[in-house]
Amino acid sequence: MYLTIILYVLAVVLSIISFSKNKEKTLNIFRNMFKSVGDFLPQLLMAVLIVYPLLSFTNSDAVESIMQKLTGFWGMLIAGIVGSLAYLPAVFAFPMSEQMLSFGVGYMQITMFISTLSIVNITSMPMELKYFGVKTAVVRNALGFVQSILISFIMTFILSVITKRMT
What we know:
The protein is built from eight helices and no strands.
């Protein structure tokens, strides 16, 4: 909370300093910034209008019930696909993951779900395609998925070692 306030104050102070040094250049930067936001806003609104109604039909219980049945490598891949398609803030994913762990879902599946939820995002793909191009968007998401697999294996190993030492 305090960091956000500090960053906003810093942005305002630096904008004032910039404005006092070169009024025209600063105004031009603000015009370009608002134009960029205006170009970006329709894409963002479209994603929100599509995704949030879908979220109203899908709740955390449905995701948990799917993931409870998943085990092993195939379970990890399916958890990755679910995470890639889900459009949930990570704030909700962590408590949901704790609950899934209590239901017996493995570390590998939970890690893959959280990792792909954070790194890969299929729902924002139209926006990425527009601003970054097809190659960059596809490569970024594909590499993110591979990275999520590696993270899942590493975290599963680390968490297994820690749990064995605690018992």
